[in-house]
Amino acid sequence: MGALLEKKNCIVTGGAGSLGLAAARLFLAEGANVVLVDRDRHALEQAATDLPTERIALAVADVSKAADSEAYVAAAVERFGLVDVLFSNAGNFGVVAPIGDYPEDVFDAVQAVHVRGAFLAAKYTVPKMRDGGSIVITSSVAGMRGDPGVYAYITAKHAQIGLMRCLAKELAPRRIRVNTIHPGPIDNGFQHAVEAGLGRATGVDGAAFFNGIIPLGRHGTAEEIARSVLYLASEQSSFTTGTTLMVDGGMNV
Length: 253
Description:
Number of helices: 8
Structural class: alpha/beta
Helix content: 40-55%
Shape: globular
Radius of gyration: 17 Å
Strand order of the largest sheet: 3-2-1-4-5-6-7
Strand content: 15-25%
Oligomer: single chain
Largest sheet: 7 strands, parallel
């Protein structure tokens, strides 16, 4: 059996983060070309230091801006050709606060990255995608639940599911599959910041709190989540579209 993504061209937003980078490594190991997109140039360059230069490209972009989104897609096509896989993974968290105190600018900023960012990624990538490709959007276990104070993040993660379902139906005639992946807490810097915010808001130990409500009793790793992303990106999931894949240690059960 050959490599799962042999000569496939992939875009990964949020590419300097732990999940984006873990997915990029797997994609590359399976024969793909990868464009890593992130707003932090230094972090991108650090992330790419040990990646194969002939099959990797970097694009600095704010995914919430249309011009930046159009530009990173154009750069990907110029470097490698039409796109086969879009992994829309960029994200931010916001804060935890009661509704009366929730900062409106923070709410808007979170929607801009998660919802507008995923929308723009699809808007500019789909016309440059080959038929039979795959779009994977990183939602979250938070996209399946509600928790007090997490207004921006949870709202955004629910919205991504609606976007995914619309895309899945529109793109099915082109055999482009569209799915969301729903990680539980990952042992990374993003989650550590979330847990620190939770601790400040509630006075509880954030990491212990999450481990206590995950049936498997631990955080996941970026590499574990990335394996599920690879499944959705590859032909292993050839009859899977419009679905919400939970990779959360049972947290949503």
